[in-house]
Write a structure and sequence with these properties.
The protein has about 400 residues and is an alpha/beta fold. The protein folds into 3 domains: about 140 residues, no CATH class; about 60 residues, no CATH class; about 140 residues, no CATH class. Helices cover about 45% and strands about 10% of the residues. The chain has 16 helices and 10 strands. It has a 6-stranded mixed β-sheet with strand order 6-9-2-1-8-7. It has a 4-stranded parallel β-sheet with strand order 4-3-5-10. Helix 11 crosses helix 13. The protein starts with 9 loop residues before the first strand and ends with a helix.
Length: about 400
């Protein structure tokens, strides 16, 4: 049975100067603090089942552990965490209307706005190497020192003094990508790397741990854990209650503005998108980003505005479906994305089927010009599996 990891914050140290080892110095640099393995990740690893070696949705696990609220009642101070999809203009309209304000001090805020993307941004992976405890590291290195004599007694004594500054409960990364950092021709370097690679294969409760938080992201990560939080999607919905919601008529108006060729009209259309009720308009927004992002949104200066970036980050996956429009692949992805987002309805299905019929079947195949062959649009449908998902969708 796998040994459980004690659920606390661990410091991770890494030796970054292997290629500085020189025979004349007979010394070794101590590891330096590089990252943290927080208790939330330790808990996620402990809860793994069915032989899995790594949590697949650590961001979602962390989000679920937070003190999340779904109401803005009595909220007077708001703090925006990085990488959220929430228009500053929309927040300002809400704060002005509710005698509230945005503040820089997250610890003093009534609520902090967070996103899954923001959490995932501060979670990193080791792609090579393994973690061992400080005691395991020191025991192995001491044997290596006694066996090879590559480190002088003076150099070893200095190393031991330096290691006293590292907590006994800290972890050391071994066997990571130093072999290719240059210096492989240095025989000292090669022997140390061979030892490190061997040590990295030592089995312990941390052997499968790859997730961590880089030192540069630790402050941001810790700020995401204490206090009261609200998901950006929830805040968007609550702050959009008085915002305009897309319908067929509005969709056509925005579409006409985009295709007018007039820069001011395009900017107005994008401003409307940025300030609409995103949650209630997501079916229309998915279609707008699928059709018009590359040739109409991107060239406009408003594209990189803070308010448009907020909505763009939520619908970028639709904008990325600009390839192989003569193949079913992008349209299949469009359907699946909308199913995932709960935005697919019957009207959207029929629109996508129209696109597939025109762009994939009638055009590239020459069927539309044939005086011999015939095929009806009514013959094109979703597969039963996709149709079943549609019926389960709440739109």
């Amino acid at each position: 049975m796998k040994t459980k990891i004690e659920e606390k914050d661990y410091k991770i140290y890494r030796i970054t100067h292997w290629n500085d080892i020189k025979k004349k110095e007979n010394s070794i640099h101590p590891p330096t603090l590089a990252a943290y393995f927080p208790k939330e990740m330790a808990r996620a690893y402990n809860e793994l089942k069915d032989g899995r070696r790594s949590p697949g949705n650590i961001g979602e696990d962390i989000i679920k552990s937070l003190n999340l609220v779904d109401s803005l009642d009595n909220i007077k101070t708001i703090h925006r965490l990085p990488n959220i999809s929430l228009s500053r203009d929309k927040v300002k309209m809400w704060t002005d209307a509710n005698n509230a304000k945005v503040i820089r001090d997250g610890d003093a805020a009534d609520v902090k706005i967070i996103s899954l993307k923001g959490v995932e941004k501060v979670v990193s992976n080791w792609w090579r190497g393994s973690l061992v405890t400080k005691s395991t590291f020191m025991l192995s290195l001491n044997k290596f020192h006694n066996h090879t004599g590559l480190i002088s007694d003076m150099g070893w004594d200095k190393f031991l003094i330096d290691m006293e500054d590292i907590d006994d409960e800290s972890l050391i990364l071994t066997g990571d990508n130093y072999r290719y950092n240059g210096g492989s021709s240095n025989s000292w370097f090669s022997q140390f790397i061979n030892w490190s690679d061997t040590l990295s294969q030592t089995k312990n409760e941390f052997s499968d741990v790859q997730l961590h938080v880089q030192l540069s992201d630790w402050k941001a990560y810790k700020s995401m854990l204490g206090g009261t939080f609200m998901l950006d999607s929830t805040a968007n919905k609550l702050m959009s209650s008085d915002s305009v919601t897309f319908d067929d008529e509005m969709f056509i108006n925005v579409k006409n503005m985009l295709m007018s060729g007039n820069k001011d009209d395009v900017t107005m259309a994008m401003t409307t998108i940025a300030n609409c009720n995103i949650e209630e308009s997501k079916t229309y927004l998915a279609m707008l980003f699928f059709h018009y992002s590359e040739n109409y949104f991107r060239p406009n200066g408003f594209y990189n505005s803070v308010s448009f970036k907020a909505v763009r980050s939520s619908f970028q996956k639709y904008a990325d479906l600009t390839y192989q429009h003569g193949h079913t692949s992008p349209y299949g992805r469009l359907i699946n994305y909308m199913l995932e987002d709960g935005s697919l309805n019957e009207s959207a299905v029929q629109h996508v089927l129209d696109l597939v019929f025109e762009r994939v079947i009638m055009g590239p195949t020459g069927m539309g010009l044939s005086d011999v062959f015939s095929i009806k649009r009514s013959s094109l449908t979703l597969k039963p599996e996709a149709r079943e998902k549609l019926h389960l969708n709440v739109v």
